[in-house]
Amino acid sequence: MTSRTLRRRLHHGDVDGRNREHLETSGFDSLSEPLLANYDDDNSVSQGRRVDDIWDDQRRMERLHWTSLFSELIAQWTQWLANIVFGSGSLIGRLLPLSSGTQNELSRKLFPSSLSPLQEERLRYLQQRLEVPFDGSRVEHQDALKQLWRLAYPGRDLPALKSELWKEMGWQGTDPSTDFRGGGFISLENLIFFAKKYPDSFQRLLHKQDGARAEWEYPFAVAGINISFMLIQMLDLQSGKPSSLAGIRFLEILKEEEMAFDNLYCVAFQMMDAQWLAKRASYMEFNDVLKSTRTQLERELALEDVSSVKDLPAYTLLNR
């Protein structure tokens, strides 16, 4: 659906109320940078656009929508965490109707007084990975993008680093490097890990092979960056030591599994697509799907018998 078609449907009242409200409040006119841009509204457009990278109307609107999605994700993640982990609708909230004081006591009991040397080492390495921004001028980062293409499309010719062909993978424009502002290099590493470790699931999601798909699908690659960022926030990995319940449980998994974050990413991506299909979602509902994915993932991490990513109920989705 092109933006011209969408505007015509808006004019004639053919778009439902929820999508109309989203379009009117997403800030499309003031946002133009991909993923975690932080510019003032009055000059963001002029700073974000490139003279030599003009997109068609649909791609421009998609880019703005994903920017809006990330901005909302940052602003709301604290509220989500409180509601999901201890709210009355959460797994813990249903099983343990705790007072505020009891909740704090539970967190103190769950949080280890000290991490083992192995946990410290693995957490430190993971946090170092988070600090690496994607740099399109670095040869090793260019090579990683090329590796992702070869894994995604074996047998096809490798395109130039700026090419219309990258849009087929779900990048927003002809230059994938512009999409990494929010996720950093680790989000590309996550996609590569997914393609190598679970190639069948990766291909099914890339080519949207499961279920009855929406007319307006989520872009695969950019969705992957969103999932990396969501996990980083959910697990509280940018603090010295994670203090969220999900983060604490993740530290226990990290003790047993060095690549826990990357494996959890694959589970989260597959879970998101399953939620997408279950909700019969379309493009503008991706944010809601990502929220529900986070909710379900936190619930599964809270299960007592989970000591590795493979113990998560949703892990079975990767091995269908």
From TrEMBL:
This is Uncharacterized protein.
